[in-house]
Write a structure and sequence with these properties.
about 550 residues; mainly alpha; single chain; 3-stranded antiparallel sheet
Amino acid sequence: MAELHPVRRSRLAAGLTRLADWALRTRRRLWLCSFALFLALAGAWAAATPLGGSPDEHAHFIRAAAVARGQLGGPEVMVKHTVAGVDSEFAETGVQLPAWYAQLPTEHECYSWKTAVPASCAPKIGSGGPTAQATTAAGRYHPAYYLYVGLPSLVTDGPTALYLMRLVSAVLCAALLASAVVTAAEWRNRRPVMIGLLVAATPAALFLAGMVNPSGGEIAAGILVWSAMLAVLRSPDPLLLNRRLARLGIGGLVLIDIRPLGLLWFAGAAVVGLLGHRRGALRPLLRRKALWAWTLLLGIASAGALLWSRNHPDHSVITLPDWYNSPSVAAKVAFDNSMDYIHQMIGWFGWLDTKPPVVTWVVWTAAAGLLAVLTVVFCRRRDSLAVFLVAVGIVLAPPAAQAAQYHLGPVWQGRYLMPFAVGLPLLCGAVLADRAASGGAALPWRRIAAAVVIPLALVNVAAFYWTLHRFAVGGTGSLVNRHAQWLPPGGWVVWTALYAVAALLLVVPAFASDRGEDPAAAGRAGRRRHRLRADDPPLAAVD
């Protein structure tokens, strides 16, 4: 294919930069644009995935509907399951709901793990009916997330209620991710940080954001926590400190209240951030009342999460194979599965039975690898230690977790680690932004952005289409969904087009001018300052 003419290429780059600068003119505009795009992406996944077609979603549907009705707990019910040919008894929670909820656990069984079978085989979900007992394996989980996503079940019924639950979950994740984008845009050299954020927001993160699954909110909160933590400690700005602390606090509350592991992931982000903090950033930070107010709230949330977890132990009886008989064996199995976990964090859909095109894994891994290599080349010794610790944590956390709970069997999945793993591309972007500000990484960041984020957008769309194709016609069906046996509400064309447009527009902020790069634009923004709200200063202002 002929190479794009240099003049046209420069005009395209200039056009993208103008569009990005328009979006970044104020924080409110950037937040609203980012929120709309993330909501479109997560919402497309919510519509294009069959109900119950993601890991354990039936259990989360039931848990959410029960908590919204005030059933924070319930009697323990031992339910027999066969996992990998091994019979076990899982301790689930019994709740009282309309009888149709009880059919959800089997809704996906006719097509899950059978990639040639489209989702059209699933029985039709009912509505209404008398109250009956349903069981959920999520009954031990902290109720905060489920109270929020379960609210639609109080006003509607059947599939409509389930899709609305997905939508409100997508709204939460989109709000957290949009706040992370605004935080990235506040850096003086923001292109590397934006690239790191787009690498962190993998197709798997967007897929889970559109499901009723606490992992979606957990990952989005992890991205916000890392973004705000690194900005507070590595790019200090007294005028922005309270905003950033608020984002850090909100992200931390969501992360900690979803799962007890969230406290560990938050602590990991704090330790890594402190390792590379800018000289002089700590003293004014420790003097801020907002820091101590958010610390108190996070402490209360941590105590509540730990207390809830302690009072709701797992009494499941897992029959393990003879060879899986010690923590060391569990750790080895988890370590051997490291590449699978990485692939799952990039994208592995359905019930971990639907792989994206291989190019999605290749391009995303290459983008993360490029950031890591540039960071190692240009970073200071202290920064290299921080990057090394995050990388080691990504590799060793699954074996350590499996060894600690080997009696539950090999249950670890890549999504459990994502709230911490997203810190690697975000940290690399922050380090490179620091070095660019000091002249230590004077790289053509606009060209690097084009070379990284545009391919990411394309393979993101490919992953979405391929997953929808698997549900519509089966993994071995015609590549074009002309004779789809299963269709999402509104058809597959609408959601594919929406996803493609949103994915391509989402990368535009990576082309924005750095703060202070365009003095004329900054001057015009300064003259308009009196017309802007005091709490919404222009992002293009010179530091």
